[in-house]
Every structure is written in structure tokens, then in C-alpha cells.
Design goal:
Layout (H helix, E strand, L loop, with lengths): L4 E7 L8 H7 L5 E4 L4 H13 L8 H16 L2 E4 L6 H14 L6 E6 L7 H6 L20 E6 L4 H8 L4 E4 L4 H13 L6 H14 L27 E4 L5 E4 L10 H8 L9 E2 L4 E3 L4 E4 L5 E4 L2 E3 L4 E21 L3 H18 L6 E7 L19 E10 L2 H8 L5 H4 L4 E2 L9 E12 L6 E6 L1
Parallel strand pairs: 1-2, 2-3, 3-6, 4-6
Antiparallel strand pairs: 1-7, 4-19, 5-14, 7-8, 8-12, 9-10, 10-13, 11-12, 14-16, 14-17, 14-18, 15-16
Helix pairs in contact: 1-3, 3-4, 6-7, 7-8
Length: 455
Amino acid sequence: MKEKIRIASGQGFWGDLIDAPYNQVYGGEIDYLVMDYLAEVTMSILQKQKNKNPELGYARDIPELMKRILPECKKRNIKIITNGGGVNPIACAKAVLDVAKSLNVENLKVAVVLGDDIREKIDELILQKCELNNMETGESIISIKDKILSANVYFGAFPIVEALQKKADIVITGRTTDTGLTLAPMIYEFGWNKNDYDLLAAGTVAGHILECGAQASGGNFLGDWKSVPDMANIGFPIAEAYPNGEVIITKHENTGGKVSFETVAEQLLYEIADPKNYITPDCIADFTSIKLEDLGNDRVRVYDVEGLPETEFYKVSCSYADGFSASATLTYSWPEALTKAKAADEILRKRLENLNLKFEEIRTEFVGHNACHGPLAKSLNEDDINEIVLRIAVRSKDYNSVERFGKEIAPLILTGPPSVTGFAGGRPKPSEVVAYWPALIPKKLVEHQVKIFEV
């Protein structure tokens, strides 16, 4: 058993800083590089890509990244764990193996975790009396079954542990929990058991801190954000983990950002719902038990985390097609910019009504006034406003209504209030609305698989 391991966060989402994983590998000592690429909407995007091309459906940043870091990771035995396999982890693995061959990297094992994609099993599950009822409304998935774009189970850490036990250098998964990416190497290296709930909770908390990348090391910091140094070169967080469940959150030396009590505490509050019951496939973590100690020098100790047994369910993330939407913007300048924008909104809405178009929702924002705070926005003095951006969006099951909306924007320029600019790019086109369907599935109805590919 190792005395400690260093697990580095390399991505907080698909589209995060491209150089972050590279900097984590070359910036100092690490044992594991974990990269979280997935969000709920990402799965539907990847599924659409795979539908068009069966060789796609994964985070396409990964092969290019491997060209930059794979030889160094192999040389220093840095293991890579990512859920960037999306809906096509095998294709992702093959792309990585192609990179390895091109770089003459030998004796490389790439593990793929399969089984999370249940889209083709919906009918079978319904026959087994599992209707994947919506967690918010209780409605059966039967009502939207024919519109489903993706359906993926959130696996936890243990399928990754199995892959590591098979001596994988790289583990590529589909929809694995963000926290599971970090927890898995702790279980593997320290020999934790499935019923070591306090330890599993400690690893889960560490994973929660790392999952959003630099959000734990000074990025998007709501506290004294001006005190965060050199954000242009921000360092991503690293979890220095110990067998007893204690973790020190830190970052590489000579990087920007900061790791402090405040930055770590703020990340701990991110997307947790009930803090006493942070539910994962591996355990339930009690976030009210967490203790933090700021050790200085960008090091924060996390300890005394308590956990409870896992539930009998996996969470399922489904996406489905739910109509069409379009949005458009126009900019109105001083004087009376806000008054002009409001008048343009009223004129447009009246024209849409006169055309008998059908919309489930029409939403207007006045950017520079209320786009962020809505009805809570403070009143503004018209004389102090240089410009206002009118942003209006529509949503409808009827494609033709959304398309016609797009044809009513440009006419406002010459048939509405004066001093308007900012119309570019042509008429807005309808785009498909992707809706989210959260559900639970008994764990006994799902099985994971681990496949090994070698070069």
C-alpha cells in the first residue's frame, strides 16, 4: 500500500482549458490524471454525433491530448481516468491506441467500462416493471419513449477499480459519476472495501472538490476574487490522498490561482442538494461532517468525513427531443435605450399574436438591465444607459411557428423604434430542444463490463 497518492484534476467539463491536463502532467509530481468531460446535455450531443457517424460520440479532444501527454504518462506511470468516452468509449479507446501506435508507445493497456448506455433496453425494462419514472413528476418514461435521444446510468467508482486491478494504464468510461473518477484510485491503491463507508465518503468528497477543475483553486470564486493571483495561468487542483481518508487539496507550485479554506469550502457547496445525504452509487456522504484546515501555502486538509451505505438504485440521465427553439438579439442605443427595447418587444409579441403562431414559451431579456436578475433587477435611470440588448427566445412543438419567428426580427429594424444595431448572421433558425429526464433504476437490472485493449 502506498503512503499517499496525488490525483490531479485535468478537466472540469468538455470545453475546459485545453492545456490544463498537459500542465498537470508536466508541472510536477502526480500519480493519476482524472478528467471529467460529461454533463447531462453533453450526452445528448454526443449521441447525435454518433448517430451521424458511428466512429464519433466521445470527447474528441482526447486523441489530440494523448499526443502531447501519453509518452510522459507512460514513462512516469501516471494513470489516466476519464469519462470522456461519452456514448462511444470503445471508439475513444481505439483512437487513443492509434495515437499510441503512431508514437511508438508500447505495452499500453486501455480499459473501457461499458454497460451504462441503456437506450436500447428501454422496452425490456418496461416489461420488467421498471418504467424509469421521472424523479420530479413521477411520470412514466413511456410518454416520451419514442423521443429519447440518450439514456445512461451513472456508474460509480468500482467498475474503474476493476479496470485498475486489470493493470490498465488508461481507463475510459461512459457516464460515470464525477466523484467516482477520483474515488476509484483511492479504493484501488489503499485497498478500501465496499463497506468502508467513511473512507468511501472521504474519497467522494475529494472527487467533488476536483470535479469542476479550477473552480476549487480560485476560478469562479465568489469570495474575494480579486485576491486570486495570476488567473491567466491558474493551476488546477490536486488531491493528495492518504489511506486513512484524509486528503490535502493543493496545486502545483508556481501556478496561478489559490487553494484556501474559502475556495475549497465554496466548491463543497456546489450542486449538493441535501448536505447530509450526498447520494452516489458508492455511498452516501454527509457533507455536514466535513472538517477543513487551511495549512497555508495552497494546502487545505479535508478530514473526518462520515458516510452511510449506498442506496439500491442507480440514477439514470435521459434526454429527449421536446420541440424547437430560436433566439435573436437587437441592440438599442441611447437615448431611452431601455424604453426602445421594451417597445420593440411589445411590437414583436403583437405581430406574433396576429400571425396566430403557437409557442409554449416566449422569453425576453434586456441585457444590461435584467438578464441576470430578472424581476429583482434594480430600476435604471434612462439617461445613464448607453445601450440595451433585446434578447428574445421562443419555444414550440411547432417547427413552422419557430421558423416564422425568425423572419420577424429583421423587419423590426425599419418598422420599430429607432437607433437599433447588432443584427448579424441572418435569420435565426429553429434548433431542436433537448429536455432532461432524471430517473432511478434498481442496480440489479444493470451490469457493467470492463474490456481491455492493448498495444
